[in-house]
Design a protein that fits this description.
Blueprint lengths: L4 H11 L8 E4 L10 E5 L9 H11 L7 E4 L3 H12 L4 E5 L5 H9 L3 E4 L4 H15 L2 E2 L6 H17 L5 E5 L4 H10 L4 E7 L4 H8 L12 H4 L6 H10 L2 E5 L1 H15 L5 H11 L11 E5 L19
Parallel strand pairs: 2-10, 3-4, 3-6, 4-5, 7-8, 7-10, 8-9
Antiparallel strand pairs: 1-2
Length: 317
């Protein structure tokens, strides 16, 4: 299944009956403390609370699903998306999550009717348990980021985004394992700059680009449950090496600040990973050129609401 713009168009037709067209919010100069205008793509309002529903539906609708159903390893959002899509399509699902997954995300997965196995301290350990289960049962393993149907499904977000806001110059996209930014970069290739944003403690893509191939990294921090892939995928690396213009590193404080700004000033609930792309701008890590049209992806909304009550930082630095 080649990862192309044509494949993304076909996937969008395939999954449209099952996903939401998420809205775009225009920001004026001064909104959220930004000294320039920008727009936010609110994928945090997608079914199951994140963009992951796109890849999950594309995988289940384009692959042969055995009677044993589907399985996935996830820090939370991918598992919720696979569980949601499986419920809609009446397919049994078993989801493996690491111990770092938040109770709210585990509860969301269970609410969709999937069996949940909490195992291992990290995503990589949950991933190994998922692979063992797949080998034992023959269930279809839906990879969170390094699989063609997943990347193509996430690329439908780019197609939809362009249709809502043509002429954007630069897009900011959070990076975990890299499936999302790979799909978006495929769609916008040759048209729009795509910049990845990684937390300082979850740097799988920037480490791979520096090393010349995917490498293992340590993961921790406030966004580890959604952006904490220990190693970016081979497919991801090949696409991002050619199609991602830069990767910006942000701190946990930057991320929390962006998350709270969204809540306090716009009443938008974003989890830390969902606010990471905005953190590159509210944290002062990127200064647009005069007239540059900026698009920022808020990719996930499965937040602990209690975490949004702390004070907002006043400095952009």
């Amino acid at each position: 299944m080649p990862i192309t713009a044509a494949a993304i168009e076909a996937a969008y037709d395939r999954i449209t009956p099952h996903i939401r067209v998420t809205p775009l919010l225009q920001l004026r100069k001064g909104d959220l403390g930004l000294p320039f205008a920008a727009s936010l793509k609110l994928e945090c309002l997608q079914h199951s609370g994140s963009f992951k529903a796109r890849g999950a539906f594309n995988s289940l609708l384009s692959l042969n699903v055995p009677l044993s159903g589907v399985t996935a390893a996830s820090g939370g959002n991918h598992g919720a998306a696979v569980a949601y899509a499986a419920r809609v399509l009446d397919i049994p699902a078993r989801i493996f999550v690491p111990e770092l997954a938040t109770p709210a995300k585990i509860a969301r997965i269970r609410s969709y009717g999937a069996d949940v196995e909490i195992t291992g301290a990290t995503y990589a350990e949950a991933r190994k348990a998922c692979e063992d289960w797949q080998a034992e049962t023959g269930a279809l393993d839906i990879h969170a980021y390094d699989a063609e149907p997943t990347i193509i499904g996430q690329g439908t977000l780019g197609l939809e985004w362009e249709g809502q806001s043509r002429g954007l110059d630069t897009l900011f996209v959070a990076v975990g394992g890299g499936g999302l930014i790979s799909g978006i970069a495929t769609w916008f290739a040759g048209k729009t700059r795509v910049i990845g944003v990684e937390p300082s403690n979850c740097r799988s893509l920037s480490a791979a680009l520096a090393a010349g191939s995917p490498v293992d990294v340590d993961v921790s921090g406030v966004a580890a449950d959604s952006l904490g892939a220990r190693r970016c995928g081979e497919l991801v690396y090949d696409i991002c090496r050619a199609g991602v213009d830069d990767v910006i590193i942000v701190s946990d404080d930057n991320i929390r600040d962006a998350q709270r700004r969204l809540w306090r000033e716009a009443q938008i609930v974003a989890e830390p990973g969902g606010a990471a792309a905005l953190a590159a701008l509210t944290g002062g890590h990127y200064t647009p050129q005069r007239g540059e049209r900026i698009g920022i992806l808020v990719c996930g909304g499965n937040a602990d609401l209690a975490s949004l009550s702390a004070p907002v930082l006043t400095s952009l630095t």
